[in-house]
Amino acid sequence: MVVPMSLLPATTTHSVSLHMRISLVLLLVLLLGCRGEPKSEDRLFTLLDKARTGVDFENTLVPEDDFNIIDYLYFYDGGGVAIGDINNDRLPDLFLTGNQVPDRLYLNRGSFRFDDVTTAAGILSEENTWSTGVSMADVNGDGWLDIYVCRVNHLIKAGHNQLYINQQDGTFKEESQRYGLDFEGLSTHTAWLDYDLDGDLDLYLLNHALHSRESYVHSWRRMIDAPRVGDKFYRQDDGYFVSIAAEAGIYSSALGYGLGIATSDLNQDGWPDLYIGNDFHEDDYLYLNTGLGTFTESLWKTTGQTSRSTMGVDIADLNNDGLPDIVALDMLPPDLATQRTAGNANADARMRILADFGYGPQVARNTLQLHRGVAPEGTPFFSEIASFAGITATDWSWAPLAGDFDGDGWKDLYITNGIPGRPNDMDYIEYVAAPDIQRILHEGSPAQEAEIALKMPAATVSNYAFKGGRNLQFEDVSTTWGIADPVIGNGAAYGDLDLDGDLDLIVNALNHPALIYRNESTNNHISVILRGTGRNTSAIGAKISVWASGIPMMQEQFPSRGFQSSVDHILSFGIGDALIADSVVVIWPSGLRSHRDHVSAGTRLVLDETDGRIPPTEKAEDPIPLIELVTNHGIAFTHTEDEVWDFEILPLLPYGRSTRGAALAVADVNGDQLEDIYLGGARGQPDVLYLQLPDGTFKNTPFPNSGQSSEANAALFFDADGDKDLDLYVVNGGWTGPAELHQDQLYINSGSGDFYADSTRLPVLYSNGTAVAAADIDLDGDLDLFVGSDTPPDSYAEAGKSSLLLNDGTGHFRDVTESYSAVLQHVGHVTGAAWADLVGDSLPDLVLVGEWMPVTIFENRGTELIHRTDSLGLSNSTGLWQSLAVLDLNGDGFNDLVAGNLGLNTVLDVPIALFADDFDQNGKIDPVIAQWEHEEWYAWASRDALLQHLPALSAKIPTYNAYKDLSITDLFGEDIQPDQIVQTLHSTVYWNRAAEHFTAEVMPHEVQWAPVMSLEAARMELGTGLFLAGNLSATSDAFGASNASWGLLLNFTETGNMHIMHDSGFHVPGEARNIRLVKGDSNQIIVARSDDTPIIFKLNAPLTR
Q: What 3-state DSSP class applies to 1042?
């Protein structure tokens, strides 16, 4: 396919072809992709060889006849690293665990020289053992770090977990039995914490189950205890650890495939909480500490989705807002070719089955849970923004380590990855599923099993480093920083090995010497050393905050991080080129507080809990919130979606089409100066009308049920028949048929809020309606309508039929679309519409937004609508638009446009093409979405989805491997060209420049984290407030839920400057579809949600204008 690389200016008329517009986008992509080679002075890490360091450890792994990847699926998970000063000489020492090789302990002699003291220190070397995770902690509170090593007891591997108690003379004594920690099973890692704040350390032991077909059971079975594989929780009582998992509310079942664990005070109440990452289909666990000796598992109250096969986990404050964020790793490859061959076959069907079994929404990629705050009831809430952050795909990943490696005050991210054999290669899965191969696996010889295992393709890929910063969009600096070594890395840890203040890295590699990276940062640092009271001598659980150069930084003292590993107990803070840190504040586990001002760069600051002070109790009066949740509003309505599985109908969809409701309209329908509320039901659900009472509550009033079988997608109160009361137009739709249920409905108001349906007033409108807007377009004194439509039922590529309805003055309407504008009838996949004067002639013009279409403007000339999109500077605005608001935001007298888009937190990246054709010659248009890579268009859909929709392609792509490199032209021929192309996914403000043209300004990053499905403006004394909400959870497995929004209030000043109003009180979980201002004695905001109840807020700021 030849793509032209020239283009006329964007301000030319609409004669510019679509293909020429596409070319501009592609040219920009190519130009932005041209980057120079990294400069040598940018290299941050130097890899030191074993001859230099003396660390000659190598976790060599050789498949055994009775223990290999076929027998034990976690065979390649590797070992861990622990860093800590075991002899109190200030230098951090190293412990590395081996699977088939002995564990090793290395003493730091300074200047990156280490001595192997394994044997001399009393570390055991036993036959047929298999060590995994390792942590260091002062278990008995004597001021010396002890070592805990996890082991796997399975098949021919034996042995219990090891607790090495420091004898304070350079030796250790294994005393796990004495302390009650000699667990024997399948252990992964540990996390030490003082969960009951009694001054000693307790222990969470992370274990993992064995996966099989029998593992796919209902989620309630996580309540059943499995002694050898379920997680354990131990409370320390007088030096002995008592197992109390059930008593403490910890799951300990055969569904727990525990691979990742991290500890943090997630809800900011002073008590340590836990995040557990589980492999396979089991949900992760988020345990909130009640402070009463128990935990409450609260995952799905806090976030919208997690990684599916969660590997390692880390928790750290990534954006310096003082709140802990969560990074969890999965196995998504960064390149399309490998993505097409690795994963889960029939993923959408599998996802639906797991949902029926009670498992939550998961995505097969890395996730970043950004902490957004704590709800009034004490539950934290997170936005999953890994796609926005640019860290979703790092291949078969193990350890995430979030630390400020370059010392600029912002945390970066280091990730280890790789595996000798990729067991999720889908051709391999089909190969082993064959009956003859299954027979060998059950009855064959070890040599035959080994031959089968060799069929797995290897994934020896580079490890990753991402540089963090203010905007939460990480930059891949793996090569620049010098850590892009194609080595399989498992466990990893960081610590200041040479006492220069920065963080060095140690990686336990597979079949390769351990990697030791010296940090060459030239930025300044301070180090914080904590001395806790009682038996918690490292003050595990303490929170440390440092302010320097205007940057607030926060870390928590929880050493178990990443994967099977434990970082140093001394905390390092980078302060850039600042010579001092303004202040250091420690909140100790006891609640005491220590404060130091003006700490010089290079300081190793030692703080002791005994010097802490009780913080002053300042009883500040709670300010009146701008927005206040209303709970006793009187509305008893739950929008209930009908059961439609869109991806069974059309497997090529990225996200669902049938959850566009719930419809919402607001107006004073009974003339009492109080605005009332209409809420539309889904298919099979009656619509409802609530009248507002003087006290601001609402009372249900009878409403005609003629629309009960239809699905209300949009609604509008307006005076249809000119009798001075407000009638109701309901746009019916729904992505599935029959078409008769899509007929819109007009309800006539009798004058007092009593409505009746009159179907004779409307023409036949069997479209999948999505939007309605009213204006007197012909200036004859009555209100006319535009009714927008999305795709026809069971379709995606075709545009539905939109309609312009002219009012005869009595509330009867006729379709005049073709006479006013033939283009308008099939203008696109309309999702939002509004009438407003945009060109300064006092006539209402029509502005539309939709998917696969630009922000579109039709100028009203009285008897016709003229397409002005290109001439007003909007030709390159094609997006996946979801919502629209039109108002003058900067007070210049011209109406501006606010358009809500799909957002940047998605696996799709511009340019995105839609190829629409009847590829299989069955009389229906097939939609194939494609992305631009390597100067070619490539189908975004998986092979399974493509073949499910277009089975004739099976001859061309008989295997997953055959599909991996095929472009669109390889699949469909050289002559194929895209029908539409998306040029932007940003939610955007388009400023009206004196009715001559529009200029774009993207909305703040926070707005881009989720689809903006609805917008509502309110003029307030503090400026114009724009309420935004959305989310889209009905998505394909490959796309993943796009549900990071919790609602936003965006404030515009009189000059048009915009900023997010944090802590406004506008907190909207779930699938918001419509937002409306409700006026009354007290003004309110209502949010209608798909498949949920509406939410109402009281607006405490007075309205203006």
A: strand
40 pLDDT more than 70: no
Q: Round to whole Å and give the CA distance between 1090 and 641.
A: 7
Phi-psi map region of 322: left, alpha, beta (phi>0 left; psi -120 to 50 alpha):
left
Residues 187, 188, 191, 196, CA torsion sign: negative
The CB-side HSE value for 781 (13 A sphere, CA atoms) comes to 6
- Segment 115-141 mean pLDDT: 97
Domain 53-422+458-531 class, CATH top level: mainly beta
Closest CA to 477 of 48, 44, 47: 44
pLDDT at 620: 65
pTM higher than the cut 0.90: yes
Is-contact 946 939, C-beta < 8 A?
Answer: yes
Is the peptide bond prior to 911 cis by the omega test (within 30 degrees of 0)?
A: yes
661-824: CATH superfamily: Integrin alpha, N-terminal (2.130.10.130)
Q: Report the C-alpha gap between 859 and 866 in whole angstroms.
A: 5
∠ CA 286-287-289, nearest 5°, is 145
Fold agreement (53-422+458-531, 661-824): yes
Q: What pLDDT score does 643 carry?
A: 85
* Contact between 61 and 512 (Cβ < 8 Å): no
Q: Exposure string (b/e) for 1039-1048, b if CB count within 10 Å is 16 or more?
A: bbbbbbbbbb
- Residue 842, judged by CB atoms within 10 A of its CB (0-12, 13-18, 19+), counts as exposed
Half-sphere exposure of 414 (CA within 13 A, CB side): 28
In order, the DSSP letters of 366-396 are -EEEEEEEE-TTS-EEEEE-HHHHT-S--SS
Whether 736 contacts 644, CB under 8 Å: yes
Q: Which of 1102, 1078, 1018, 1091 is nearest to 634 (CA)?
A: 1078
DSSP-derived secondary structure letter, 576: E
Domain definitions of the chain by residue range: 53-422+458-531, 623-639+1019-1104, 661-824, 827-905+983-1009, 912-980
Q: Please tell me whether residue 1055 adopts helix, strand or coil conformation.
A: coil
pLDDT of amino acid 708 = 67
